[in-house]
Amino acid sequence: MKVLNFGSLNIDLTFKVPHMVREGETLSSTGLTRGAGGKGANQSAAIAKAGVKVYHAGKIGADGQFLIDQLRSYGVNTDLVTIWDGPSGQAIIQLDESGRNCIILLGGGNKAIEKEEIDRALSSFEKGDYLVLQNEINNIDYLMRRASEKGMHILFNPAPFDESVFALPLELVDIIVVNETEGQGLAGLQNGDFETILKALVAKYPASEIILTAGDKGSYYGCRDKLFHEPIIPVKAEDTTGAGDTFIGFFLASKLLGFAPEESLKHATKASSIAVSRKGAMVAIPFKDEVF
Hints:
Layout: E1 3-6, E2 10-16, E3 31-37, H1 39-49, E4 54-60, H2 65-73, E5 77-83, E6 89-95, E7 101-106, H3 115-122, E8 130-134, H4 140-149, E9 153-157, E10 175-178, H5 180-187, H6 194-204, E11 209-213, E12 219-223, E13 226-230, H7 243-256, H8 261-276, H9 288-291
Parallel strand pairs: 1-4, 1-8, 2-6, 4-5, 8-9, 9-10, 10-11
Antiparallel strand pairs: 2-3, 6-7, 11-12, 12-13
């Protein structure tokens, strides 16, 4: 069984600020770091650090070679990453004193994925393999349908969430991972507590496992008549960037290593708690021996 993550790769520019910039405000930053990121790349790093082999496919510019180098250093196979003449994806991140963040994205190569590149990547995978997707690249519909035709399992994290998600063949997805905002949007709810959101998603997508991350309220799992909650492990937050990606990577890796959903959720919770206690995104993700 193999894992293919066809996902975003970003150059993260993180500005440390006393508070998020307000409308019309010019704010001085107290620090700047340049790092490797993107939901896709972070999730691949988490899967690899959790001890499962993962192949990453995506697209970067010449400015993003260090993204490949960093992923490879964690054991991610990057042979399916395409280099093109345009820019890599970019993320401008505001990080405040409490560890919260706001992010502005430029798609770059992430939004220039061609169907021929998808077909080439999928040709190395078969029935029973896993495809991991986020909503930061184009041609997701094509990816889902082609993977489903091959009999692959699909994990989808619809982040960032927008109306385009409703046009996707979500009935083909085996594992859906959302936060509160994404969960409400996907369920068609204006409000509601976490259990209401979870139950609505389970009813709407009965063939899927639903994972709902709930910040300081922990996380929830739902599939058919199986519903349960996992509380957080309290830590002092240094940087929440990439926490959800860490959670997703460790949940999937735990599942593939043979752990039950309850244990997989515990591992994912512990891993994301460690990640938020450190600075950075990809570099903050713990390794397997820190979690299992």
